[in-house]
Design brief:
Strand order of the largest sheet: 1-2
Distance between the termini: 26 Å
Mean pLDDT: 92
Helix content: over 70%
Structural class: mainly alpha
Number of helices: 6
Number of strands: 2
Oligomer: single chain
CATH superfamily: Histone, subunit A
Radius of gyration: 15 Å
Low-confidence stretches: none
CATH architecture: Orthogonal Bundle
Order of helices and strands: HHEHHEHH
Amino acid sequence: MAVIGVLKFERFFRDVASLDVDKDDLKRYGEFINNKVYDLLIRGEAAAKSNGRDMIMPFDLPITKGLQESIQKFKRLDEGIELKPILDQLTMRPPLDLGYGYDVEAELPNVVGGVSVALAHSFKIIDPDLKNPTSEDWDRVFRLFDQLL
């Protein structure tokens, strides 16, 4: 990731949850995001198949009320940070049985942004005084997300 991208991610985590992250944290974050995108797309694929469609539509993605609120927070924050293009490049698109169209592709960076906001807030829910997440903190939050998404 380019230096400007690292700086934007550091600012994002600082603005969202007063967290100081480093390059190792950003590597963990990238792996986490790609795993969660895959999970969301797999569930979207299952929804599309169960409805007899051969294409994943935006409404097939399992976007909860809480995640939708986090997406909206991300959109407001991103006006100043401009992280969306970096998220779009960072997010891998896994091969699936079904394809997805431009509308799903266009929405993925916002979904990733919403998951990122929820991730940052989760650190503070688990430990309100946390400033510098440790490996254990990251693992704890990842386990929480694995239960929910």
